[in-house]
Amino acid sequence: MLRVRYVVRLCGTVSLLALATLMARAAPNSDVTVEQMKARVSSASVGDRPHLCVQIAQKQLAETDKLYAAGDLEKGQAALLDVVTYCELARDYAIQSRKYQKQSEIAVRTMTRRISELMHSLGQNDQAPLKDAVDRLQRVRDDLLKAMFPKGAK
Questions:
Q1: Does a structural domain hold residue 143?
Q2: Is this prediction's pTM over 0.85?
Q3: pLDDT digits (tens, 9 = 90+) for 46-56
Q4: Which end of the chain, N or C, is surrounded by fewer C-beta atoms within 10 Å?
């Protein structure tokens, strides 16, 4: 009876250690810069590219938000262009590999919402690039949804 408890505790400890190791490896590395991530896109497998492109777009959106809040509209527009470009790449790679489509669509929807909120905080004259970005991201979402739910397929 004592041996059984020992074995159960040992297995539980080993399982927890393995789980902690896996979680530490899966945690996103915040030290990686956007430029390093962009360099990794070309060398990543097609199945890994959508996730990487979404991560780049999310980091660039955070940067866009900071730049617009600071009043630096020109740099903010450049970062916003990166957001849209990498969302479009994520869409293309997700459809090509048939992986990460749902997660990409959810991430693009969230980014669209954040850009819309940012757009409403600006004056009318500064909203045009953000409106264009929202329209392009909406097309990305539509394409992903069409790829996930094709008409007539049952």
A1: yes
A2: no
A3: 989 999 999 99
A4: C
